[in-house]
Amino acid sequence: MPDHSGRLIVRHSLRNRFGLLFVTLLLAILLPTIITPEMPGIEVLVTVTVTGVLLSGLYAVAENKRHVLIGLIFLVPAIVLEWLYHGLQVRAIEILSAAFSILFFFYLARLTLLFVLSTRRVDASIVFAAICVYLLLGYTCGYAYYLIEALLGDLDTIATVTGNLGYSSPHTEAVYFSFVTLTTLGYGDIAPLAPLTRSLAIVEAVAGQLFLVTLIARLVALHIIHSSQEEDDSRPRAADQSA
Q1: Among 1.10.287.70, 1.10.940.10, 1.20.1420.30, 3.10.450.50, what is the CATH number of 5-233?
Q2: DSSP character string of the chain
């Protein structure tokens, strides 16, 4: 019989509001690895992917109307300006689009983090939300590097050491650099040049490590405590049944 476990995991992820956000974030990360700058319509495809991430992020916080309204204040300009820049290629639109995207990703990461911290029981939603916080942190800083590059214009803020990385846009390259920094991999193929970019890289690297040693450790501890409580609750029942 065929193994349907992978299909069930994907289906369950799409039904979960933070699971859907995780899937779209993962697609946005993996997309640049399977496309090349020579592919037709590549800019449209990247813009569609970014739009999907933004919309799934709004859906993740859709249970609270106030959160949705505030999110729309950042989301609508981010999407509109993203598509306008795709058609007009105006630097001012590029800067505003990146700025609103940063505000939305930061707001979404904050709400998701508060959701994770407020839990007393670890389930699939909490696991997906915790992963999304980590990925959103990488995306927020990636757009920040991209914004710094756009503001400084011709001045290089991020330099490739080993040559062209092969990505289709500076935005994708900035996101790649962000996740390399967040995970403290330090491949050496790309490095920050501007003082502001270097400072942001330090903050991101420290935040990435603190996330792993604090939030993830807390979730593991909660899971252990909850499992122990369930075992303690089941023992009296088993004793009563034997009697």
Answers
A1: 1.10.287.70
A2: ----HHHHHHHHHHHSHHHHHHHHHHHHHHHHHH--TTSTTHHHHHHHHHHHHHHHHHHHTTTSHHHHHHHHHHHHHHHHHHHHHHHH--HHHHHHHHHHHHHHHHHHHHHHHHHHHT-SS--HHHHHHHHHHHHHHHHHHHHHHHHHHHHHTTS-SEEESSS----SSHHHHHHHHHHHHHTT---SSEEE-SHHHHHHHHHHHHHHHHIIIIIIHHHHHHHHHHHHHHHHHHHHHHHHHH-
